[in-house]
Amino acid sequence: MITTGQIIRCKAAVAWEAGKPLVMEEVEVAPPQKHKVRIKILFTSLCHTDVYFWEAKGQTPLFPRIFGHEAGGIVESVGEGLTDLQPGDHVLPIFTGECGDCPHCHSEESNMCDLLRINTERGGMIHDGESRFSINGKPIHHFLGTSTFSEYTVVHSGQVAKINPDAPLDKVCIVSCGLSTGLGATLNVVKPKKGQSVAIFGLGAVGLAAAEGARIAGASRIIGVDLNSQRFDQAKEFGVTEFVNPRDHDKPVQQVIAEMTNGGVDRSVECTGSVQAMIQAFECVHDGWGVAVLVGVPSKDDAFKTHPMNFLNERTLKGTFFGNYKPKTDIPGVVEKYMNKELELEKFITHTLPFSEINKAFDYMLKGESIRCIITMGA
Questions:
Q1: Is 333 within a domain?
Q2: Is the pTM for the entire model greater than 0.70?
Q3: Choosing from 10, 47, 173, 284, which is the catalytic residue?
Q4: What proportions of the chain, in percent to the nearest 5, are helix, strand and coil?
Q5: What whole-number distance in Å separates Cα of residue 298 and Cα of residue 280?
Q6: Interval 159-185: pLDDT, tens
Q7: Is there a catalytic annotation at residue 49?
Q8: How far is the C-alpha of 130 from the C-alpha of 14, rounded, in Å?
Q9: Is 173 tagged catalytic?
Q10: What is the total count of domains within the chain?
Q11: Whole domain around residue 357: which residue ranges?
């Protein structure tokens, strides 16, 4: 390709200040170096994590920055020594990675790569700390190693999943973060058996993906727990069969669920980040075989307590990161679930926008009106 080895000038939505609308700018994107790829982003979507760090809540602000980490695109060029990716490959950039060499990557039980594990504070490339984005010579910070709110981006090859070229990128781009996090929490971690009951705490995008996992697994009852009763009608599309709003009851919600299910649900998935919900999700599972998994990210100083007898009575509490999926190894298989019509993605996509109107996607999410908004680059 004529752009190989050259600086590319393209449009990017740049966050100059916390909480201020993104500004469409012409940026320079440097060519990829060793172990890196430059990707032409065709579709991206907005995740709550983008909004959280754009608002600069709870961490050191890092601006100017190009956000974005759920996307699909095509490899434009590759850096020195890369053999597993080549120009023209259809790919999903992922916010975490798989180097293939560390103990975590060698383990069948972990996806928490030592080298490429998520790092929200890093604003440059992993090996030299330098940005590949600039405007008039001024560096623009990266986000999560992906920065997909740019028509071109440079990503470490370990954070790039090569997928079926027949898969529609405007649909499967949402597989690269929240959907896989919730789906994998159910399918890979708590692993409900056909006919079992599952409680889902929090019916945002990740919780709905967890419910989708329970539906795929053949759960007989999927109980949605949320403080917003208006979410139940939408949740029915994802397999949720019953709804509990803790505010509607004068007893702990774990007790409500235990009474509904003759002692507790078989599995539960917590997707809120609230320590209260974490306690409820654990304590609502059945003794003897119940398994709960925590997905939501708590505040830095949060802690919770539960009586040790809950463990001694053979309840199991687990945690998960990115649904226990290894990015390069496993995410292509999630895409194939969609291609084989096992996984439904369209119902997660509530809005579509041209890149020029990306700020509307933030408005939709802040108002709670969207699950996922697909942004078409070059439009």
A1: no
A2: yes
A3: 47
A4: 30, 25, 45
A5: 14
A6: 999 999 999 999 999 999 999 999 999
A7: yes
A8: 17
A9: no
A10: 2
A11: 8-174+345-376
